[in-house]
Write a structure and sequence with these properties.
- By secondary structure, the protein is of the alpha/beta class.
- About 35% of the residues lie in helices and about 20% in strands.
- The protein has helices at about 15-25, 30-45, 55-65, 130, 140-155, 180-190, 210-220, 235-240, 250-260, 280-290, 315-325, and strands spanning about 1-5, 5-10, 65-70, 75-80, 85-90, 95-105, 110-115, 115-120, 135, 165-170, 200-205, 225, 265-270, 295-300, 330.
- It has a 10-stranded mixed sheet.
- Helix 10 (about 280-290) links the parallel strand 13 (about 265-270) and strand 14.
- The longest helix has 18 residues, at about 140-155.
- The structure holds S-adenosyl-L-homocysteine (SAH) and iron/sulfur cluster.
- Iron/sulfur cluster binds near residues 120, 123, 127 and 130.
């Protein structure tokens, strides 16, 4: 919602084609106009009424009173040596989030990492976002707006610029903002919009069980990544405080339900610190994932303000080797964008992308 001259206006990027149809009908505007608006905004990236010229001046003038392009805007960008880019995005109320673009040189495909909240209330110990606290949820339009703005910026240099994969792995916990996140998924998936397949999207959660259950119930083909980090409740309670609410047994049960319902594997993220990169954790993980279709991503902890300590390379290799020996599919995640603080857990609300834009 947008507060302007006493009238509450809807953010146009949050509106589905159906809701635009309803709005058009209420203003005696033909239904096909809704399609024009939706395609204009989501496929062609219009960021103002003037950028949908096919609409006609009368319809535009009428709709201006109800719908607004709610200023999601890239205010700064930084490019890493490894081609990862980080965008500082400002929102209508002045809040800021970060969005990361990860091009794959080998395939030419691009993955965008989206924020779902301003800050995060979970407070994981090694995560910069979590350590900064929580400000507010993002709306569906603000989530999709990150994709639309990055495409806009990309198309300036390359008219064929496309996003292939979407991961909800930026700032915030997606399943503490489930309604808006799932609406954003619908908007990104819409045939007349960007038409990004659900299987090309992944939601990463710290283990909010109702969100996982929802995907299972709907047999949603969207990918699921679970940030596990430790296989012992006493350790996980401390590292990922959400564990106190949804302990490991309950979390793993929900993951198994998701696998059974969707026939999709779950990706488990293991951030490895000196404390957790141990044989004890590796064996516990092997036991936890027995008989389950899964993939483990090992992520040596990235430097954050608090600076959790990285394990030695040999310890990480040994952790990986133990999993492989037990036939648990696993990989070591390649570091991306560490030099510009765009890697996992390095996204911040304050001082983000500060300093000279490294373009
Ligand atoms: N809140 C969600 C999604 C955003 S965090 C979640 O926790 O899954 C995205 C990923 O970054 C998670 O796997 C998270 O655990 C990881 N992460 C956080 N801080 C990190 C750090 N300092 N180094 C490496 N990964 C980190
Ligand atoms: Fe929030 Fe995820 Fe960071 Fe934990 S790791 S504080 S859940 S953003």
């Amino acid at each position: 919602m947008h507060q302007g001259e006493g009238i509450k206006k809807l953010d146009i990027r949050s509106c589905s084609e159906e809701s635009l149809e309803t709005i058009c009908r209420e203003h005696s505007i033909a239904g096909f106009r809704a399609r024009q608006i939706f395609t204009g905004v989501h496929r062609h990236g219009a960021a103002s009424w003037d950028e949908i010229p096919s609409l006609g001046a009368d319809a535009r003038d009428m709709l201006r009173n109800v719908l607004v392009f709610d200023g999601v805007e890239i205010v700064r960008e930084k490019h890493s040596r490894d081609t990862t880019a980080k965008y500082l995005v400002s929102l209508a109320d002045g809040e800021r989030v970060e969005t990361v673009l990860i091009p794959d040189a080998a395939t030419g495909r691009r993955t965008i990492c989206l924020s779902t909240q301003v800050g995060c209330p979970v407070g994981c110990t090694f995560c910069s976002t979590g350590q900064e606290g929580f400000r507010r949820d993002l709306s569906a339009g603000e989530i999709v707006g990150q994709v639309l703005e990055v495409i806009r910026a990309g198309r300036m240099g390359d008219t064929g610029f496309k996003i292939n994969n979407v991961v909800f792995m930026g700032m915030g916990e997606p399943f503490l903002n489930t309604t808006e996140v799932m609406e954003a998924v619908e908007l990104l998936n819409a045939e007349r919009g960007l038409n990004i397949g659900r299987r090309k999207m992944t939601i990463s959660t710290c283990g909010v069980v109702p969100g996982i259950r929802l995907l299972a119930e709907r047999r949603d083909q969207i990918g699921l990544a679970v940030s596990l980090h430790s296989c012992f409740d006493e350790t996980r309670d401390r590292l990922v405080p959400m564990n106190k609410k949804y302990p490991l047994a309950e979390l793993m049960k929900a993951c198994r339900e998701y696998c059974a319902a969707t026939h999709r594997r779950v990706t488990f993220e293991m951030v490895l610190t000196r404390e957790t990169c141990t044989d004890r954790e590796a064996y516990a993980l092997i036991k936890l994932l027995a008989g389950m279709i899964s993939h483990v991503n090992l992520i040596p902890v990235n430097p954050t303000l608090e600076g959790s300590e990285r394990p030695e390379k040999e310890r990480v290799s040994r952790f990986l080797a133990l999993l492989m020996k037990a036939r648990i599919p696993a990989s070591l995640r390649e570091e991306k964008g560490v030099d510009i603080e765009a890697a996992c857990g390095q996204l911040r609300r304050v001082a983000a992308c500060e300093g000279p834009a490294g373009i």
